[in-house]
Structures are given as C-alpha cells and as structure tokens.
Specification:
The complex is a heterodimer of chains A (442) and B (202). Chain A has helices at 2-7, 43-53, 76-79, 82-95, 108-117, 125-133, 144-152, 158-162, 166-172, 175-185, 214-234, 267-279, 320-329, 364-369, and strands at 32-37, 60-63, 67-71, 100-105, 201-211, 237-239, 242-247, 254-258, 287-294, 297-299, 335-340, 350-353, 377-384, 391-392, 397-401, 409-417, 423-429, 434-440. Chain A has 442 residues and is an alpha+beta fold. Chain A folds into three domains: 32-185, Alpha-Beta Plaits, CATH 3.30.70; 201-299, DNA polymerase, Y-family, little finger domain (Dna Ligase, domain 1, 2-Layer Sandwich); 339-440, no CATH class. Chain B has a single domain, classed as 3-Layer(aba) Sandwich (Rossmann fold), CATH 3.40.50.300. Helices cover 25% and strands 27% of the residues of chain B. In chain B, strand 9 (167-174) and strand 10 (177-185) form a beta hairpin. The chains are: A alpha+beta (442), B alpha/beta (202). Chains A and B meet through helix 13, strand 11, helix 14 and strand 13 of A and strand 5, helix 4, strand 6, helix 5 and strand 9 of B. Strand 11 of chain A pairs antiparallel with strand 6 (97-100) of chain B.
Chain lengths: 442, 202
C-alpha cells in the first residue's frame, strides 16, 4: 500500500524536474558538425547536401528548418582530422554557392546552437560551457511563448539560464527545455535519428526538345546512369531492378522496366541493356523528358578482386552481363540452365532452372542407377508413331510412376532403329494402347 | 617481313602444318588420325551436315565436350530438348551448360557472338538453318580471337556453299557404322572414317 502512494503524484499535472544528472556522466565521445544553411535557400538544398554528406559519414540528421547535423567521430581517422572534413564541407558549400555557418562541438545541441549564432569550434566539455554561456536565447529555437517568458524574466543568454535552480526552471519553463539544456552541455545522452534514403530514387533529365531520335535518348540515358552511379556509389549502394519513364507531352509516360539478374552499380552494363531495349522499342509519341527510377536499392557488396586472372571458372562460368543482354533481347524463359529432378517419369526427370541458381545438383547420383539408356534428345511432346518398320532392341524398360499427381504414366520403353540408321526411344503406352516416339539418341 | 615471319602469322596457313592446330582429341582414335591436329580444331568453326538427327551426331562430340566443359558449353537453338539425364550420363556437369533458344533465326548469330565474346575459350553448339557467308566470316573472326570452339549444325543443302569453317563434316549412317566424311579440312586432306562404336554413356 505505501508503495502505491509513492508512485502516485498528488498533483498529476505538476511537472517534475528530472533528477540532476551527476557531474561526470559517462559520455560516448562524439564530434558533431552543424551546418546552418542560409534561411533563404530552398529546402531541397538541405536534402541534396545531406545526400552528398554521406561521403563523409553515415550519421546524418536534419534539424528543421535549416540545419544539417553530422556526427563525424568515426570518420576522423579516415579523413585525417576534423580540419580536413571541414575543408571538404566548405569546398563543397562554396562550389554550390551555399551560404552557411559551420560549427563543431562535442554535443549535437551545442553544435546546432553555435552554428545558429556564428561559426565556432569547440572540442572539449570544459570550454563548451563557457562558450554556450554567451549565446543569446533565440539560438535554442524554443517555442515563441517560452522565449517571450524568459525575456520577461530578464534572462538574455544561455548563461542566465544556467544560473537558475533546476527545480524552478522545470516548473516554470518545462522539463523539455531543461532536457535540451542538459543535452547541450553533455549531461544527458543525445541520440539523433539518422536520415533514411528515400524509398524510391529517381533521376530526371529534360530534353531540349521533343525527340524521337534514338541517339539523343541514348545520350540522355547515359547521363542519367552516370548520375545514378555516382549517387549510389557515394552511399555504398547498388540497384536491383529499375525503370525508365519516357515523358510525352499531353500523354501518359511510357514505362520500360528492366530486371537484373544481380544488382549492379555499373553504368556500362545497364547502358548496354538500355541500348538493346531501345533499338526495338516503339514510342507512341516524341519524348520530352527521361526519368530513371528505382525502388530496389541494396547495399553494395563488392567481390574481392581475384589474385589470379582466371579464364576458367567452373559453375557460373558465363558472364552475368551477357545473360542479361540475352534475356533482354529474348524472353527470360529462352535462356536457361538445366537441373535434374528426382522423378522416374522421363519428361519430369529434368527441369529448366533460372540463371541465378548455382547450387550443385543433388540428383546426379540417381541417374546412374537407372536401368535403361537415355537419349540425348527428348521430344517436347511424344509423337504417335508406327513401329512396324522399326528394328526393336530387346526390352522393355517399364516406367510406371506418377499416380500421385494425376499425371501417372504406364509405359514400356524400347530402343529402336529406323532402317536409315537413327536410334530412337519409343514407348508403348499401356493405357492408351499406342506407340509413341519420345526421344532420339542424337 | 621475312618469309618465316609471314608463315608464322596466325592468319596464314600452310598445307600440312600441324602444330598450328590447337586441338582437342575427338575421343576416337581413327578420327584423330585423319585430322591434322589429331583432334577437333579449337579456335575455329566446325560445320556438321547430317542426313537425319539421331544417327549419332551428338554422341560423336560427347568425348570432346566432356574435356572442354569447364570452359562452358552453350547450346543455341537445338532442334529438340537436350535431355539433361543423358548429358549427365555422358559425364557433363549441368552447371556448365547454358541453353539459349533465340526467338528468330536472325538472332542466332547475334547470340553466338554475345556468348563467344563474354566467355573466352568456351564451346558453342549451334543449329543454323540459314546463314550467309559474310556473317559466318564475322563469327569466324570472333571465334578465333576468343579461342572458342564452335560446332555448327547446318542443313545438307548448304554442304557445298562457301564457308570459312576449318572443318566440314558430312555424317551419315552406313550399316552399323557412323560414317564421318571430311569434306573440307584446313591444313589436312578430305577423307572418310567409319566409326562403329560411339559409346552409350553411363
């Protein structure tokens, strides 16, 4: 019973100050860079900057409306220090004519607040507090009502806030703001959601005029694939299936889908597929814009380069790009490998398998156990035949199987020769009382 | 350029010069004896003309195919289904075999070119109905450059057409034997071999 009273607050609506964190909190070492873009820049520039920044670190988050936040501690060694990373950022910003303030701090909030004021770098907790003290309150971007209230109380800088008692601050201003302050000072752990890539990636190019010219379309596709490749490589991604949208004036766009056997980031391979397709493509109207879209983005796995250049590779053998080109021109069904199936019915003893499959067949042992000979050629459909003129070898090999799936057979197979010398595989169907030709011994 | 250098050039051939043939044994001693490199010429086209399918036209090539299978074997436009269990019995590994059934006759040379380009040293078996000499020559050049071995099965009507093939064979059944008539043989002499036992596999 007393336990229950302890947890129930007398005034449920009353805010409770969070317990004051101990002075030395265990803090993961972090280095945050905040980039505060000029408010006049469009929102899209922040997104595109975020995508570019993935070359520096994967831990990127966006603080609305105009701050990009990078956690670069893990990248420091790779790039050779914070100055190199800052230099890369500044060069990129300058190249794109983005006006921005850049700040470095050991906590995310501090970096954001500093960048909103001016470009300052802080590298340790000791100097962090003194630096933050001088900041005006508007850098926190707390709700307008809170800021007005604070200024009415005569508080002008972050330093003024730090002088207030915690309990009173939480009661009057709110725990939310107190937490914010703790995070800025590194007294509370701050985790930021990492931005995700959009599900669907797309690249568009507008053509200078409506065109049916294949060469212009090829050029446009090449530019799109170039962009795609550089964007994906930066993010260590590759793509599986993709689509090309051909936009027409006053018409629905024509869509061409491409399926890959294996995901790819290689421009030439995809471009080859596109050129094979476009050669035989019928476009209902001239094209005004071309768009490359993919919703199948996967992590990039590069095979380690082989030490010896091998001409011989058993198993997969054939080049996957060649298979894709063939599939592009013919149908996927007309390019196949074969596998054995555990079935005594001759037509069910093999099956075509897709090109991706590369497992070793498990049925190979079984083949040698069969009694009779098997022909190298099998007819798609057994052909009714007359056995009068054939010379039959002694037999038969009786195959009676498959009753369980309603495609049961009951056949007596013979090897037979035609007078002209062909070696055939014929059977007598015990159900239909008919002779059929099923295979040729090649 | 000296005469020796000229003769040594890969595109110049001299009657009876054997070492120029990079070959693979046919698996039949009688046949090997009749061929200049003691085997099928690799890096070249072999044309095969058959009366009827079923007289042993595939069995003739099986021993060589099993030797070369690790380089990949592609079957293009076969007239019937190549039967996997039988291929396994002949010692082939199905993973090394690729089947291509082009949509139209015109696509066959393109498919051959793609396969030969993609995989150096591979083997191509193709069944061609119509093909002109220009296309064949183009294929011959690629096949030579890529060190492939191509076996083209062609209709009897094309037996005496001009062709860049290194070897032309006419197969027919005579009594119990498969008669292999060498119609044209680069660097060798025409002749005829009768093979009694082709082997059944397995």
């Amino acid at each position: 019973m007393p336990q229950l009273f302890k947890t129930l607050s007398l005034f449920p609506g009353e805010p409770k100050a969070p317990a004051k964190p101990s002075a030395v909190t265990r803090q993961p070492t972090q280095t945050w860079i905040a980039i505060c873009l000029d408010a006049a820049l469009p929102n899209t520039s922040l997104k595109s900057l975020a995508i570019w920044a993935r070359t520096l670190t994967p831990a990127i988050s966006i603080v609305e409306p105009n701050v990009l936040l990078l956690e670069v501690h893990g990248s420091l060694k790779l790039f050779g220090g914070i100055e190199k990373i800052k230099h890369a950022l500044k060069t990129h910003l300058a190249r794109r004519h983005f006006a921005a303030e850049l700040s470095v701090a050991p906590t995310a909030n501090a970096a954001v607040w500093l960048s909103r004021q001016t470009s300052i770098d802080v590298f340790d907790y000791q100097s962090l507090t003194s630096r933050l003290r001088s900041l005006p309150l508007h850098v926190t971007q707390w709700p307008e009502a809170v800021l007005i209230r604070l200024s009415e109380m005569g508080l002008k800088s972050v330093g003024d806030l730090l002088r207030l008692p915690r309990d009173g601050f939480a009661k009057r201003i709110g725990t939310h703001c107190l937490r914010d302050l703790d995070r800025a000072l590194g007294k509370e752990f701050d985790s930021r959601p990492v931005i995700k890539l959009p599900e669907t990636l797309s690249w568009v190019i507008d053509l200078p005029q409506e065109t049916n010219n294949i060469n212009l379309l090829l050029e446009a596709a090449e530019i799109l694939l170039d962009r795609m490749m550089s964007d994906l490589r930066k993010q260590q991604k590759q793509m599986g299936n993709f689509e090309f949208y051909f936009s027409h004036l006053h018409r629905e766009p024509s869509i061409e889908s491409f399926e890959l056997l294996e995901p790819s980031y290689q421009k030439q391979r995809l471009f080859d597929l596109f050129s094979v397709r476009i050669e035989r493509l019928y476009l209902p109207a001239p094209v005004i814009a071309l768009e490359l879209k993919t919703d199948d983005v996967r992590d990039l796995h590069l095979d380690p380069p082989e030490m010896f250049v091998q001409g011989v590779k058993s198993g997969r053998g054939m080049d996957i790009a060649m298979l894709e080109r063939l599939q592009e021109r013919f149908s996927p069904k007309s390019i196949y490998r074969m596998d054995l199936a555990a079935d005594h019915r001759p037509e069910c003893a093999w099956l075509p398998c897709s090109n991706g499959a590369n497992e070793h067949s498990k049925c190979s042992e079984q083949v040698s156990q069969w009694a009779g000979e098997r022909p190298l050629w099998l007819l798609q459909v057994p052909l009714r035949c007359d056995v009068q003129a054939l010379h039959m070898e002694p037999g038969p090999e009786r195959i009676e199987s498959g009753w369980w799936d309603l495609n049961g057979i009951n056949r007596d197979y013979y090897v037979a020769y035609r007078p002209s010398g062909e070696k055939l595989w014929v059977y007598f169907d015990s159900v239909g009382k008919q002779w059929y030709l099923h295979g040729i011994f090649g | 350029m000296s005469l020796e250098a000229l003769i040594a050039h890969s595109k110049v051939w001299k009657l009876g010069r054997q070492q120029q043939w990079q070959s693979v044994s046919t698996g039949f001693a009688e046949l090997d004896r009749c061929l200049p490199g003691a085997g099928w010429p690799r890096r070249a086209i072999t044309e095969v003309f058959v009366d009827h399918y079923g007289i042993g036209e595939l069995r003739l090539f099986m021993p060589a195919l099993t030797q070369l299978e690790q380089y990949g074997i592609t079957w293009i436009a076969p007239p019937y289904i190549p039967y996997a269990p039988a291929l396994v019995r002949y010692g082939l590994t199905l993973q090394n075999i690729l089947m291509i059934q082009p949509t139209t006759e015109k696509d066959i040379p393109w498919a051959i070119e793609q396969v030969v380009h993609a995989h150096r040293g591979s083997t191509v078996l193709a069944w061609l109905q119509v093909i002109n000499n220009t296309v064949l020559r183009r294929l011959q050049l690629i096949i030579e450059a890529q060190q492939a071995w191509a076996v083209f099965f062609r209709p009897i009507a094309a037996l005496h057409e001009k062709s860049p093939a290194a070897l032309k064979l006419y197969l027919s059944r005579q009594a119990e034997c498969l008669s292999v008539e060498i119609v044209k043989c680069r660097g060798g002499k025409p002749g005829c071999v009768k093979l009694a036992e082709l082997g059944g596999g397995g």
